[in-house]
Amino acid sequence: MAYHRTGPSQAIEIEQALDDPRCEQCGDRAYIKDRPKVRYIDLPVFGRPMSLLWRKHRLYCPNPDCQVTTWTNQDKRIASVNAKLTTRAAKWATKQVGCGRTVSEVATELGCDWHTVNDTVTVYGQALLETDHKRLSRTNAIGLDETKFVRTDNHKTHYVTTVCDVENHQIIDIVPSRKFTEVAGYLHAQPIKWKHHIRYGTLDMSPAYRAVFTVVLPEATQVADHFHVITLANRVLDTVRRRVQQEQTGHRGRKNDPLYTIRRTLTRGEERLKDTTAQRLAAMLKLGDPNAEVSLAYRVKERLREFYRQQDPEQAKTMLDELIDTCKKPSMPTELQRLGKTLTRWKQPILAYHTSYLSNSITESMNNLIKRIKRIGFGFTNFHNYRIRALLYAGKPNWRLLHNIFP
């Protein structure tokens, strides 16, 4: 109807055409009582904020027997009830924030405050995620991993669990805890058809997550992440090194101690060492490890790495069995004996790598995307906002469905 401009502010005024309005209760013809103007935040035009003045129609029913007296026409195509943004502006803001922009940046472009945009994004984002059913029904492998949610002076460290679609590289959901009961409850609440479709479950050697897969998805093959298995071997190697170092020198590591100088070299792959580095490693072990305990731990770690490079599953199983038997020998250091017991408990999930060739690295990478959202938002204390923002950014929603959503 009109265009208004006052200084930096600009607005477009509209009014809908009514064609024989009727009372929804009794069906009698309704009449216009008033035309109130309602201001909404609309899409920016040429980089400048724009408002929409919607001249609504307040109608009344002349039928004295009708329980409905007056009402105001609503149209979700223009704006939802009690909304501050127009529908098109709300959907635009949801996609902008969901693709990685900050809420404050989008709010500045729209010419409104932070809370208005954030509330809109959570409403439309939640509606989009609930509508996009195909996002959850196309995977046969999921991964579980924890990530830190919040840690401030007023909050203790709170961890959440990321449920990841390992096959399609996307986040399925975020559970507000890493405890068995909450994570198992979430998976148990999923459709039976979806749970029967899951063939593999990847995890990082967490007893809680292993119990979740065992109880809720017993038919799924558990796959221990190979990175965490090698990390465990490196941790055992470092424990042996520190103990031997303490026994030989009587103090913690110093820069001139033989074992301390090679602490990082020990964790590197043997095939990646230069000749001079390998010679230096052998010399330092000979000098600081008289009983060859560190050397044994180093050999065990390298043998475990060879196990993961093995292509034949049967040969890999034989190699792992031999490694476990070696670690369990009474003559081996106690740290390696404990490692042998751990490998025995996790034997089947470790062997499953050679039949599935899956790992939990996809879940770890999704957690990195979540951390990017946390950096953009300067941290979160509200889990609902955190979950919606993370799923919009790393959950790969079908943005085309947003055009048909009117919450």
Automatic annotation (TrEMBL):
Q: Which residues form the Transposase IS204/IS1001/IS1096/IS1165 zinc-finger domain?
A: 21-63
Domain Transposase IS204/IS1001/IS1096/IS1165 DDE residue range list: 142-389
Q: Which Pfam families match?
A: DDE_Tnp_ISL3 (PF01610), Zn_ribbon_ISL3 (PF14690)
- InterPro entries from the UniProt entry: Transpos_ISL3, Transposase_DDE, Transposase_Znf
* PANTHER family in the cross-refs: TRANSPOSASE FOR INSERTION SEQUENCE ELEMENT IS1557
* Name by which UniProt lists this protein: Transposase
Organism equals Corynebacterium spheniscorum
